[in-house]
Amino acid sequence: MKTDPLTGARGTVRPIHLRCEHLINPLGIDVRRPRLSWTLEWDSPELSPEGATSHSPGQASAPPWVIEKGTPARNGQHPQTSITSCHSTLGCAGAPRKNIRQSSYQIVVTHESGAVAWDSGKVDSDTSILVEYAGEPLASALRHHWKVRVWDETGAASDWSETATWTMGLLRPTDWNGCWAKGLVTPTDWTAKWIGLKTASPAQDDGGCPSPILRKDFAVRGSIKRAVIFVSALGLYELRMNGQRVGDHVLAPEWTDYRKRVQYQAIDVTQMLQEGENALSATLGSGWYAGRLGLSVWSSGGELRGFYGRHLRLIAQLDIELEDGQKQSVITDETWRCSADGPIRSADILDGEVYDARREMPGWDLPGFDDSAWQAASTSPGPRLFAQPNEPIRITRRLKPVAVSEPNPGVAVFDLGQNMVGWCRLNVRGREAGTDIRLRHAEALNPDGTLYRENLRQPPVGPLGAPQEDHYICKGGVDEVFEPHFTYHGFRYVEVTGLGYRPSLNDLEGCVLHSAAANTGKFECSSPLLNKIMTAIQWTQRGNLHGIPEDCPQRDERLGWTGDIQVFAQTAIFNMDMAAFFTKWLRDVRDAQADEGGFPDFAPHPFDCNTRANGNPGWGDAGVIVPWRAYVNYGDLRLLEENFHSGKRWIEFILLHNPSLIWRNFPGTEWVYGDWLNGDTFVGLPDWPQTGGEVPKDLYATAFFAYSTELIARSAEVLGHKSDGLRYTELARDIRAAFNREFVSSEGRVKGDTQAGYALALHFDLLPETLRPLAAQHMVRALNAYQGRLSTGIQSTVRMMLELSRYGYHEEAYALMTSRTIPSWGYMVEHGGTTIWERWDGWVEGRGFQNAGMNSFNHYAIGAVGEWMWKVIIGLNPDEHQPGWKHFIVRPVPGGGLTSARGTYHSIRGPVTVEWHLVDGTFQLDITVPCNSSATVYLPSDGSQPHAVGSGTHHFESPTA
Ligand code: BGC
Question: Which of 557, 568, 859 has most ligand 1 atoms within 8 Å of its beta carbon, as the pocket-test mutant?
Fold first, then answer.
């Protein structure tokens, strides 16, 4: 306990929000040297915690952003001064004390028994994120407890943190052998097996495949201390123990390249098991493994289903520890029973699900069920298993419809008020057995109130499309509830037929499901339009995270397109904690890298990644740019290292085919997407120029080549790979020189004279310093040629916004941001968009929908402008040279008629808040810097004057610029 010198307030620093491998108390990690992180909070008992994100007892490990609190409106009653002033306040509720830094830490890790596995001792270091465990080797399936204490910059020690845990996964393939019970139980060949039906799921489109159900009874002989199940599937699984669902994750084990890796999940089932008889059961679904996938037309063999395999399989190992110290394991093997007669008659990610409730078998998931008519499980070999490194897909929200209409007799159309991704839960009131209730999903309505489903690309628009259609066949006589299991849909509207009565709003809810990474960003400003745009961006983000960052969630595509997340990565990071998610997905990217080094256009890549859809500029570059963004924001050197070698291979691949350093040869792909969906792709807009928007592809590609090479050079430097550092620094310099020779005039004109060309050249720092302001002027001229409207595509829009701001064209940038005319974000949200559209002209007043073959209303790429909103309106910028928010830059730029803005970003080092108001000709700024971090603040009135601040809450005032 210390006394603060300025206020006399006493307070201590405390480590909170403990994470292991970016996750809170993870279960089942297979990292042998896990990394531990914490944030520091100043705990001030004398100050009111109201409105603060401060720790409350018993919640030390909970992320502070789990509970989002409303932000109190500011009254703007700060003292007025005519000159820029700055002071740090200490009286703000729960605000950190000033300039708190960690000087040392101590971590203690214990085994379940209490024995110490690692005591770091007092380590003099300010590192508070990703400290590598350096204790005894860690064994499979064991749980560890850990705590940390720190010393601040004055040398005062904190209390110990609350204890957090992590549980190891099964580290070696041979650990799937009932390892807990080994030596205690007899069998010697005890290895969990991949089990399922003898029959394969269909390869072609002949009606989908019934979901196998599997079960096993077993006895537990003693009272249970702890039980953990490790489980995975080829396909999707839902597990039940004694009649209850195990875990809250859905669509597990999620999508990976199943030929190379399958993820498993670990779930604590201690509370679900009972002494004596138990039943473990599972239902399997086709999922990405055996079902239909987007763009299957690209498969060389003409298959429509089963790209990875057609035998659905389950693997599980239940490890039980008894109070008396005995251990027992239950594994999947031939003693399990299975049946194809369960209620899910077909389930597919794109098609939807058919559930026949008449086939339910009451008691099938309870001990003692008569399964003698079922078949014995078949077994087959399976791929290598890995622990899932990121947050699983979960249902995070349930939406109530805002309206229900009846466009045709007997047809109910629910409006959820929000374009969302997931499925519906429907109450059905007393219908006859066999009644077929159909749910069809769509993002938009036709003028007559019926569903607009053409953009799902079903015939005649495309060969199969994504029907996103569920059926529930009633068992009859009772009130029933339907919720699907192994599919998901992108929709705002749901058409329900077959009910035989007019449903009420309470009969349906929309279950929103996505990879459940925590929310990290809360953005608010005085413009309702911009708030709406940010909300739409955030909905689009959560709508497209399903183990992979997908392009869209509705039509038959839903692929992890690399180019989209490449440009959206920084926005994604502001909005959600993407550290663990990117760790997972970047493995998929590496798994799909072509032998020659071409990164894929999408990952996982279910087709032949060596012969198609690889090596695309701006897309493949995600393999370099996304790890770099993750490094900058999370300081994760291990992730950077994991992706370094593959990144080098990418650069060498481009170089091999383009020794002149101008990227013109694209051997891995038949289609260079370029600055996708730029202004030249608009249809039927009067007075819109037909050409002039698209940046020349060689220029575009070479710009990415230079940038990725530069990032590899910088990565080499921070990773300590000296000779690589030299090689790629030189190469990047040479590519820039070639770029300038080939594409840039001595007056700073860039070939093609497009907005996009200037944006890319400036954003990637390709031009000599002297030409940059000139090129920025040309960019503005190119903008004016379009009457100040965007002609940019997905790769250059946010980059142009950022460069307009960097070169002082604030008015132009704000005009674009606040525009309500097409093409603009404002146009989308003012015309029904609750998520970001794929195309600027997805729907146009008077013209209607764009080409249904490619017209998603839930595509985040254009939403990458979220990065600009965070960096320019709020003014929060990570510092690429001091990663992990060790230091950051605050440079808010008011404009566009905004009078205030407030953003909180929960960085890996703790919450950062920026809030500004324009009050009577002054710009008033309050910022909160987390402990163990610092910032440099630039005010609008004296743009180049840095103000250095340490942790704490700081207030600035200056005349408005
Ligand atoms: C996807 C995009 C993707 C693109 C490649 C589209 O069909 O939806 O988001 O990046 O193809 O150009």
Answer: 557
